[in-house]
């Protein structure tokens, strides 16, 4: 008997459910080759990767829902590893600098994933409907979580990708299906954490404002007092909430953003190490080289040479490997 109700949310320990297999087939249809493909509706993506990642791919990930329908992947945040596959979905609740690595994929059975950006303003309009008596308080927790797959969300994702084949239907119906997915997430065990994305007065939203500033201004000098004021917190409270969500201090977060961008500039834009370090905000090339080596495991020149030798630069594939 097919699981129903609450049992259906956690029925993925065995073979893939029919809806998951159907979603995998639709993702194949929209991914003619490896890469990340944005569909007719902004913020909806299909992803395909045909081989395991030889190196972890670093990037800044925005709030999103990620569901794997075939293959497996792991995400590294700080020193914490989050692994997921067709039995588990991953959600980002904040802007987080992560390293992604596809761990199971072949040409015959590629890694296939569905990704939906989680829009704060859209969630804000739904929160009062799902939580008419207010959102329950929740202890601060990481800005990323792995949760058992929600078959209601999978079913909605199937219908969302099906209407993408028809432009008229996509324009009218896709936004309604996206809203359904958000409502199902808000009603799920991680719903309170999803709700925090849209609550202007929440601690999570205050930290999100600080993260947005750092994302845009990572090359600029950082003043903790100004960031705390932006988040409407005391400096001490800001530090505590920031680390609870991101697993790192504001200074460490800024450093990771700088190093990720420097690596991207050297690898994709062919910028040398000196110019890259200056462009991301370092005043000392030697400090940049030391911190880069500690973070990526090799000095800038050696690291980039190794990446180019073993993994030819393919921006679309790199984005796919970290995005969903």
Number of domains: 3
Number of helices: 13
Note the main sheet.
Answer: 6 strands, antiparallel
CA gyration radius, whole angstroms:
20 Å
Low-confidence stretches: 1-14
Query: Helix/strand/pairing class, anyone?
Result: alpha+beta
Secondary-structure arrangement, i.e. CATH architecture of the largest domain:
Sandwich
Helix coverage percent: 40-55%
Shape, please?
globular
Strand order of the largest sheet: 1-2-9-4-7-10
Fourth-level CATH superfamily of the largest domain: Jelly Rolls
CATH top-level class of the largest domain: Mainly Beta
Quaternary structure annotation: single chain
Q: How many β-strand stretches?
A: 10
What's the rounded overall pLDDT mean? Answer: 89
Strand content: 15-25%
Report the span from N to C terminus.
Answer: 31 Å
**Which H/E pattern describes the elements?**
HEEEEEEEEEHEHHHHHHHHHHH
Q: What is the name of the CATH topology of the largest domain? A: Jelly Rolls
How would you describe this structure to a colleague?
With 324 residues, the chain is of the alpha+beta class. It folds into three domains: 5-198, Sandwich (Jelly Rolls); 203-251, Homeodomain-like (Arc Repressor Mutant, subunit A), CATH 1.10.10.60; 259-316, Orthogonal Bundle (Arc Repressor Mutant, subunit A). It is 48% helix and 19% strand. The chain has 13 helices and ten strands. The chain has helices at residues 18-30, 120-130, 151-163, 167-186, 191-198, 203-217, 224-230, 235-246, 250-268, 273-279, 285-296, 300-310, 315-323; strands at 35-38, 44-49, 57-61, 64-70, 72-77, 80-85, 88-92, 96-104, 111-117, 144-148. The strands form two sheets. Strands 1-2-9-4-7-10 form a six-stranded antiparallel β-sheet. A four-stranded antiparallel β-sheet has the order 3-8-5-6. A hairpin with a 5-residue loop joins strand 1 (35-38) and strand 2 (44-49). Helix 1 packs parallel to helix 3 (151-163), helix 2 packs across helix 4 (167-186) and helix 2 (120-130) crosses helix 5. The longest helix is centred in the middle third of the chain and has 20 residues, at 167-186. The chain is globular.
């Amino acid at each position: 008997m097919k699981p129903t109700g609450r049992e259906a949310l956690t029925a993925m320990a065995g073979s893939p459910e029919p809806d998951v297999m159907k979603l995998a087939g639709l993702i194949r249809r929209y991914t003619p080759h490896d890469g990340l493909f944005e569909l007719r509706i902004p913020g909806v993506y299909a992803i395909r990767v045909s081989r395991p990642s030889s190196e972890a791919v670093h990037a800044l990930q925005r709030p999103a829902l990620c569901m794997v329908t075939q293959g497996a992947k792991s995400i590294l945040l700080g020193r914490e590893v989050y692994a997921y596959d067709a039995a588990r979905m991953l959600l980002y609740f904040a802007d987080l600098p992560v390293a992604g690595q596809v761990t199971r994929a072949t040409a015959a059975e590629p890694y296939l994933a569905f990704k939906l950006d989680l829009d704060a303003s859209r969630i804000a309009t739904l929160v009062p409907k799902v939580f008419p008596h207010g959102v329950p308080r929740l202890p601060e927790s990481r800005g990323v979580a792995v949760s058992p797959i929600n078959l209601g969300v999978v079913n909605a994702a199937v219908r969302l990708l099906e209407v993408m084949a028809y432009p008229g239907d996509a324009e009218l119906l896709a936004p309604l299906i996206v809203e359904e997915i958000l409502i199902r997430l808000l009603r799920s065990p991680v719903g309170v954490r999803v709700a925090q994305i849209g609550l202007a007065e929440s601690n999570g939203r205050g930290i999100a404002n600080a993260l947005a500033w750092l994302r845009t201004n990572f090359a600029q000098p950082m003043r903790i007092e100004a960031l705390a004021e932006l988040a409407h917190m005391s400096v001490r409270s800001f530090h505590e909430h920031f680390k609870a969500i991101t697993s790192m201090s504001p200074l460490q977060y800024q450093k990771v953003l700088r190093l990720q961008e420097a690596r991207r500039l050297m690898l994709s834009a062919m910028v040398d190490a000196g110019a890259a370090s200056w462009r991301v905000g370092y005043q000392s090339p030697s400090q940049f080289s030391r911190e880069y080596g500690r973070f990526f495991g090799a000095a800038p020149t050696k690291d980039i040479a190794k990446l180019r030798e073993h993994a030819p630069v393919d921006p679309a594939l790199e984005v796919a490997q970290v995005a969903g």
